[in-house]
Write a structure and sequence with these properties.
The chain is built from one helix and two strands. The protein has one helix at 68-71, and strands spanning 6-8, 13-15. The radius of gyration is 20 Å and the shape is elongated. The chain starts with 5 loop residues before the first strand and ends with a helix.
């Protein structure tokens, strides 16, 4: 069983994340709570919402000392 979030607009469902399955599945739909129109665009699943909030070290892909003996 998998659960994903979606928005229902009265006639269609918009998935807020990709479905974790590729096969044909029977689904059950549970209506949890109404969504205010303004809040649809504030959901954390919007593409690019983490831009500028994450960084990667310059030496991210450098070999780790912990694995030095296995690299030789």
């Amino acid at each position: 069983m998998q659960t994903i979030r979606a928005i229902y607009n009265g006639s269609d469902f918009k998935l807020l994340q990709p479905a974790p399955v590729k096969e044909v599945y029977e689904v059950f739909i549970t209506f949890v709570e109404p969504v205010k129109k303004e809040s649809i665009f504030e959901l954390p699943y919007k593409r690019g919402c983490m831009k500028g909030k994450m960084w990667m070290a310059d030496d991210f892909d450098a070999p780790l000392d912990d694995f030095k003996e296995y690299m030789e």
